[in-house]
Amino acid sequence: MSFEKALREMIRRELSSQLGPLQKSVLQLERGLSSLQTLREVTAQLAPLLGERGRQVALRHVQAQAPVPRTPPAARAPAAAAPRAKAAPAAPAASSAERLCAVKGCKRPSRSKGYCSAHYQKLRLLIRTNRRPADWVDDASPQSALEVKLPRGRAGAKELKEAAPATPREPPKPKAWVRKKGNAGMVSLH
């Protein structure tokens, strides 16, 4: 056996040992995809029995199978460069499961207590600083609360300081204690 044959055999064995697990994974994926296709066919056959929900599932199944046409980048460039005519703003799609934020003018969907994530954080801040307006209630109906503009920077700090009740501050509690020689008790270092 020549050196070249021995080298080729060694490379072939190394490649087969490294690619073996990959080939097994690809075969398992192919089997899984064929069973997935079978499930889709069964779902399409049972869709009429399920009523409206079944029709939605079947429609999604048909849309998933339809290939999406891809336009080359050269064909997209002129359309992007062309001036667009001003169209009326599209109304947000608010399905029965998805409501809009409770703050007037906000187009984002509600996430918690009727508010979008940004306005929910503002609600938490308003509650924490005792500045919650009367119309910012929990589980508010969509587009029912007025937007609140909070002062920022020095003006905000000044407003918070004025709003805080004036309570006398206690002296700080000692943080360290030591036992001195001859004393029975502990003595504060502060």
Automatic annotation (TrEMBL):
Residues 64-94 have a biased composition (Low complexity). Residues 63-94, 150-190 are annotated as: Disordered. It comes from the Bacteria. This is Vegetative protein.
